[in-house]
Amino acid sequence: MIICIDGPAGAGKSSAARALARRLGFRFLDTGAMYRAVAHAALRRGLDWDEPAALARLARELSIEVGESQVLVDGEDVTREIRTLAVTTVTHYAANNSAVRQHLVELQRREAAGGNVVTEGRDQGTVVFPHAECKIFLTASPAERAHRRLIDLQRRGESTSYDQVLAEQTQRDQRDANRDVGPLRPAADAIELITDGLQPEEVVDRLEALVRARMA
Ligand code: C5P
User: Fold this and answer.
1) How far apart are CA 216 and CA 210, in angstroms?
2) pLDDT at 66
3) Which of 7, 52, 102, 148 is deepest in the core (most CB within 10 A)?
4) Distances in Å between the alpha carbon of 121 and those of 4, 89, 160?
């Protein structure tokens, strides 16, 4: 069974999807981590962002392993680095590159093959797993999402402000929604869950109830 959780930045998809997978005994696939991993590797190598073919070549050469709680690139643990603002800011170069997307979509399908998986991203229900048994579009108001992200970033020692987080989030949402390949949008058969005012635990409860109803 494949459960897709798509939605905009800061909707709490990663933590909710991970907790849901744990409750169900499913594997968890964080696809945003893959786009981040490619951007991080390019940043490190000082790749020219104006050369999309070089970025695609790099993506194909890398060994990207996205585990339950660890992201390895060519065997190196980059779990923390890929979540920094510096990497977040350049990840759109990887996400908007159709050849990079094509490669990562294949990787995501291979990762999920034959298993029970909760997968999380922007295009999981629309492009990657159009026949998934359960699709959820997880969202919240821009203000609530920015507030949650601010707390998360501050906890990780990044110095930023609410206004900065909101501006970065708005730009990311626009880019994600307006790109030609794999844009952010709910699948026609997705259930929308708006998480404003819900505690993380309540979000997971709602998700679990939706999935169990689908399994019954
Ligand atoms: O979900 P997360 O914030 O880690 O994703 C980082 C970026 O990767 C997103 O802003 C989006 O541009 C891109 N992404 C994507 N398709 C996915 C998952 C993430 O384009 N399936």
Assistant:
1) 10
2) 94
3) 7
4) 8, 17, 24
Q: In the numeric block, which tokens belong to residue 178?
A: 């307006």
Q: Over the stretch 89-107, which tens digit does the pLDDT of each residue have? A: 999 999 999 999 999 999 9
Residue 15 in tokens: 């933590």
Write out the two tokens for 198: 């819900």
- Calculate the CA 163 to chain-centre distance: 22
The pLDDT of 17-33, averaged and rounded, is 96
How much helix, strand and coil, in percent to the nearest 5, is found in the chain? 55, 15, 30
Give, for 138, the enclosing helix (H) or strand (E): strand 134-139
122 C-alpha to center of ligand 1: Å?
A: 6
What is the CB neighbour count within 10 angstroms for residue 44? Answer: 12
User: Are residues 195 and 12 in contact, defined by beta-carbon separation less than 8 angstroms?
Assistant: yes
Q: Choose the residue to mutate in 2, 18, 35, 145 for probing ligand 1, maximizing ligand atoms within 8 Å of C-beta.
A: 35
Residue 214's nearest CA partner among 73, 34, 26 is 26
Identify which of 166, 149, 173 has the alpha carbon closest to the alpha carbon of residue 12.
149
Query: Beta-carbon neighbour count of residue 77 at 10 Å?
Result: 12
Q: What integer pLDDT is reported at residue 158 of this predicted model?
A: 87
Q: Could you tell me the domains of the chain? A: 2-215 (3.40.50.300)
Q: Are the beta carbons of 136 and 4 closer than 8 angstroms?
A: yes
What residues are in contact with ligand 1 under a 6 Å CB criterion? 9, 31-32, 35-36, 91-92, 95, 121-123, 172, 176, 182
